[in-house]
Amino acid sequence: MKIILSRKGFDSSSGGCPNPIFPDGSLLALPIPDQRSVVRYQQLTHQGINVGALVEQLTNGRVLAGDGAHLDPDLCVDHFERQPGWRPVLGQSGSAQGHLRKQGIDTGDLFLFFGLFRPVELHRQCWRFVPQAPARHIVWGWLQVGQVIGVDDLSPSDRGWLAYHPHCQREVDSNNMLYLGSEQLTLVDQPLAGAGFGQRVHEGCVLTDPAANRPSAWRLPRWFYPGDTREPLSFHHKTERWSRNSRHCFLQSVARGQEFVLDSRAYPAAKNWAAGIIKTLSESFHER
User: How many whole angstroms separate alpha carbon 140 and alpha carbon 146?
Assistant: First the structure.
């Protein structure tokens, strides 16, 4: 199995701000802007909050409620009106898909979605980021691949429920792929969904080193350290990015790039680590 740390949601370049952590500890990964999308922010809701109003307030009007939202990965049936047959889905194309293809990502491999998050608060009846509160990289969702389909190869029945998806709004492109979530996670013995997301912040899902002043400075389990004999997390081959102590591995993650791949054959502990994160995310979902 290969594990993909997949950067998704708002950030400084896509959307222009972090994703929100609400005062009750819940969080929301915001779809990035996409003017080709047929889905608008104002059509999306989260725990009774209209996402259109939320993005207008958090971006100070740079992103508007009527703007197109790139709803991808799409993991929550309740966020938008669905057609029969809907499944959790991730789309990928361009250089990011080229990297996934080069890494051999296929059925059974696991995406762990992370993003940049920062606490928000209500101020004069509008949402704003809490002054001086730091932003952190946090794992917020997962998708185990149940099926890989080229958008150009979709059957008429699949095109029905997928018509809304932003990767189905594009011109013919053989490099435009969809990763459909499996029905059940095969990583653990207990029954867990093949795709889903967390509703609360848990420290076990935080990638950012709590002692660091930059969200891209990560603290990981010590076994993550590649050394000289193992292929490191993709896009992180420079040895100066890595260090470790007796308890942890530290990584200065790259500023750009979407999909970072780790092969669990070289890192046997990775499966249990990923399983623990997914269990935590699943439990946080059921808490609400």
Answer: 20
186-200 CB burial, b ≥16 within 10 A, e <16 = ebbeeebbbbbbbbb
Element at 57 (helix H, strand E):
helix 51-58
What letter does residue 40 receive in the DSSP assignment? B
> Of the given ranges (182-196, 245-259, 266-280), which has the lowest mean pLDDT?
182-196
- Whether 126 and 57 have beta carbons less than 8 Å apart is answered as yes
Instruction: Map tokens 């890494």 to a residue.
Output: 103
If residue 100 lies in a helix (H) or strand (E), which one and from where to where? helix 94-102
| Tokens encoding 186 | 């095969």
* 125-143 average pLDDT score: 97
What's the angle, vertex CA 259, arms to CA 275 and CA 129, rounded to 5? Answer: 85
Cα–Cα distance, 47 to 73 (Å, whole number): 19
Distance CA 251, CA 115 (A): 16
Taking alpha carbons only, the member of 177, 20, 26, 31 closest to residue 103 is 177
Q: What single-letter amino acid sits at 271? A: K
